[in-house]
Amino acid sequence: MTLAVLIIGLLVLRGLGALGVRRFATWAASGAHALAAMLVMTATAHFVPAGVTVMPTHADLVAMVPPFVPAPGAMVYATGVLELLGAIGLVVTRTRRAAGLCLVALFLLLLPANVYAAVADVPFHGEAASPLWQRIPEQVLYIGVALAAALSAPASHHAVHTRPTEVTAATLP
Q1: What is the total count of domains within the chain?
Q2: Could you tell me if residue 83 is left (phi over 0), alpha (psi between -120 and 50 degrees) or otherwise beta?
Q3: Is residue 164 part of a domain?
């Protein structure tokens, strides 16, 4: 489902760009927004109580956390917050570069949970675990989209802008 949200979102947003919506004029900008939409969807699962049956829950995600990670419940909440912050950062042009790079790091840090869930055959939302051959390429795709968004974002301008001093006869020595 997450892959479908990313790909469909990318195509719809890029289509809007082709129709003249400047915000989605490039594949990288459209990808940043599509990844943000996907992250909002995936982040919600981090906070869903176990009784909900229409989508993955906090408990499903806790089960994916490898045993060596301390406080798995807190880690799931923390990664949910980070995903939401990353999504916000991707849609704000000024923060897109930093958000994309931070998301690359987050996706790399989440990779062991995906490997563990596949190798340990941890069921997800009542279904069989996704195989490793599927999880790794998806994670690589997410990393690639986040990296493309980061690298295509305009560089931030840290220069201090000052008003030029007016030169008049009174200010000359």
Answers
A1: 1
A2: alpha
A3: no
Is the Cα torsion angle 141, 144, 150, 154 positive or negative in sign? negative
Residue 166 lies in a domain: no
Name the DSSP class of 92: S
pTM of the model: 0.84
What CA dihedral angle connects 53, 57, 60 and 62, to 10 degrees?
A: -160
Q: Which residue has the tokens 């129709």?
A: 19
What residues make up the domain containing 49?
2-152
pLDDT at 161 over 50: no
Cβ contacts of residue 65 below 8 Å, gap of 6+?
A: 72, 75, 76, 113, 116
**In this structure, is residue 172 part of a structural domain?**
no
Per residue in 56-69, pLDDT tens?
A: 889 889 999 999 99
Within a domain: 158? no
